Protein 1
Amino acid sequence: MPNLIHFINHATRPVRTVASALTFLLKVFPMLPSKPVDWLTKLPVIEKVTYPTCQGLVEGDLYRPSTRGPHPGIVICLGVVPFGVEHPQVAVLGNALARSGFAALLYWSPAMRDFRLDPEDIESIAMAYRWLVEQPSVDPARSGLFGTCVGGAFALMASASPLIRDRIGFVGAYAPYSSMWTFAQDIASASRPLEDGREEWQVDPLAWKVFLHSITSSLEPAETDWIRTMFANGKPQLDSPILSEDGQAVYSLLTSLDAGQAETALHSLPQTMQSRLTAMSPMNYLDGIHAPLVVLLHDRGDPVIPVAESRYLYAGLIRLSGLEAGVAGVHYTEMQFLHLDPAKGKLPLFRLVRELGKFFFAMVPIFQRVVVS
């Protein structure tokens, strides 16, 4: 009988993989008809849990299937989001993952909720993941990390942590940045790279706010408040006030006129600030990523993080692996949504269906890893 069950599981695995991936697709995008999924799957269980971080124990939500485990686990790094934990879209994501088979822990960063990036989050995410895979209802061999926007960049960096890097089955990132050096240069210069140069770029207000808060976080409080107030809505035309040496360096970066000036200003920042930029750059962590599956996605017209950032990451991963582009283990997909949102792009129906198909097939490798045979 055990051999028969194993044979049936093995034979039906492709079907179950597609069904799980399709369940996630239908539930994560509210625009899609998902009532049949509700009829065929049980209501997920939502638990209040306490897990460790560098800041101590924090409370979070764990979404999991109501069926018996162990289930594949996933830590979702949401990044900087302009809404709170009670926002309906948070529950939509958690329920979509649980209905498709995952025990999903949603990681919320206190720093990112304050619109700042902090390298301490890298180890906090690793600690949260270690806690998750040690739960009896979670199968550590089928678990991994996934992040969106800057959360995707931090998921990649956390996956390289010695604390967990040999316990990760997959890591995925949607619209991550590759390096704080290149990303900061883009924001400061209001330009982004092309294959043969650069073009003007209207920096998204959220990207500017995170950049502004992150680059001023180590200044004296009075200077931090002044600079954040003056630059809250972009680059004002004003003379530099009397600032400390560190404050003047930050001011020069915030008033850069082009990519060259921005690069010079970045390298003129205090060494401690430069070290933070390096510490928050995924490109410096690629050789520490041991996950057998890495999935990257990015929207070509992303207004928050330029698509070139994911292209840099993909090229770096391929170069380190010594493999050819498109091989199993490293996957990269570009789409035409607007920063993870299919509705904002206002695509014609045919193109929308095509892009949703791209998203589906981009996620399938993750479900192939976690659906048991």
Protein 2
Amino acid sequence: MNGTTTFEPQSEPYRAFAAELIAYWTSFARSGSPNTFKVKSTPEWGNYSPSNPSRLVLQAVNGATSQGSFVEKEATEDTRRCRIMAGRVKTMQD
């Protein structure tokens, strides 16, 4: 039926993931930085730049009782795709 659903309790990994994600975003909204009010045990969400193409990977890990997020170097192919899309921004906005 429209408007009805069944909710299942979240598992511990998904609760940890949700808490982490919410903390990053609310920290950004409150202070302009996702790191100011982040969960203390989580990685620093660094600034992205062409000379430092790193990204934060947010994930829930099955069987874990805490977040499984980490920082990784962006793959060259991903960087190429992002540059293609960034080059189209002006055209898409007009």
Protein 3
Amino acid sequence: MTRKADAFCIYIDTSFQGPVAIERDEHEMPVVYPTREEAEREIAEVCIERLRQFLAGERDFADAITVEEYVVPVTMLPAGAIIDEDGNIFPREGW
């Protein structure tokens, strides 16, 4: 069943769990963005901060320029959960 995405989340690929939504709010629910651009801007802001840390000598260069985060369209479910196009639901147990 194909769902129409109504929000976007920032994901990262992990060795153990595969792709996961990486941001959580104060209630441990996934952080969602209303547009792809807003999610992309969040990734860009984090990248800029990493580069500032490199310039200040607080982070090495390879770590500062590595971007592992990416944007995934998701559908909002009741009570703040999300489901992505691969059927992954967050939060999930062990989250």
